[in-house]
Design brief:
Chain lengths: 214, 214
């Protein structure tokens, strides 16, 4: 379709992010190319580099937006976390796992692609990592309620380990890497893993920094 | 360098697999292209399609080889599994996790790329999945010792869940997706996750098929 060129820097940024998101949804992040984006939003190829230092920075912005959308989904479905003791915290983890799997399933091409895109260290990368920290705080808060006495650094490591473990089950499952797993079965796998791991961490007591990192 | 064209179909297959492996190690699986491979092994582009139906089938063969190399590494480092009770089985899982992380770290570009490459269903895909089953049997066997009474289908699902969870920690860790984690810390995270999950599964009793899959 014919596009009118966005008239401000902010409009151009938004138009480019929207165009890149559509491309990633359809063809994956490898298909995000300056020439096609420029044609899509109706600007000169060179104009892209007035608002983004490079294509990687643009992709990082798409990824940061996706993290924001996920965070908004968590807040919409689950609300803010309140400490009501370890059992309620364990339930919160099950809820987070369920929301994560459903969100990844609905957005799987963009979501799994986010983890396959690799960018060099840059200011855009720092901004993206800060957004990711917001997501991980959603896991750190109930860990505090589940394992009283957990040191901040141990909590930080443990939150990342739990996120990565659930992400592994979600990503290999949605991608059918270990065989075809229907979504309800995948939900049961995520739930079973979270239940077992949390039961194990609780039985073993709050791990020290030395136990979760050398 | 100048190459002499391989003289038999078997030699050509091997030469193409070796060339594709080198390309994946250097540039990732997206860089595996017929023209460059043909130049690399010294054959005509069309000859590739005498031994592989398409490039995806060739990449699947590289991936199947990697699974064989990993399986050989497990046997070399750990030997065959023998049932010496639940505690020894739990130790076996920790050993498997350690060998997996070290292997993925040494081969990370090919290994993580294996999981990002997506191929359509084909006879090559079936052959690859059969190789993957051999790897997963390494996890199913100690599960039997750890959770006596586990039903075969529940064991199958649980082995895949545990593999995917550990793979998630290994892949996001090696790829520094959640921040920069030194290898010794990543080993501690994998060990801590396996310990907690196994403790939790043991405390909860052998899960039924309904608990690991709807």
């Amino acid at each position: 379709m014919a596009n009118e060129a966005p008239s401000t820097r902010a409009d151009l940024r938004e138009a480019l992010i929207a165009a890149a998101t559509r491309t990633i949804e359809k063809e994956g992040w490898q298909a995000v190319k300056a020439r096609a984006l420029a044609a899509d939003v109706g600007c000169a190829v060179g104009s892209i580099y007035n608002v983004f230092p490079d294509i990687d920075a643009l992709i990082l912005d798409v990824k940061a937006r996706m993290l924001d959308v996920f965070e908004a989904e968590v807040q919409r479905q689950l609300g803010a976390f309140e400490n009501r003791g370890p059992d309620a915290a364990a339930d919160r983890f099950l809820d987070l796992g369920r929301v994560y799997l459903d969100f990844a399933a609905r957005n799987w091409k963009v979501w799994l692609g986010m983890f396959e895109h690799r960018a060099a260290t840059s200011p855009s990368m720092d901004a993206y990592m800060l957004r990711l920290d917001v997501i991980l705080v959603n896991i750190e808060a109930p860990l505090d309620a589940l394992l009283p006495g957990l040191q901040p650094l141990a909590r930080r490591y443990l939150a990342r380990t739990l996120f990565a473990a659930v992400h592994g089950v979600v990503s290999l499952g949605l991608d059918q890497k270990l065989g075809d797993v229907p979504l309800p079965d995948l939900h049961a796998q995520v739930r079973g893993l979270i239940q077992a791991a949390l039961r194990g961490y609780r039985e073993g007591g709050a791990p020290t920094v030395q136990e979760v990192a050398l």
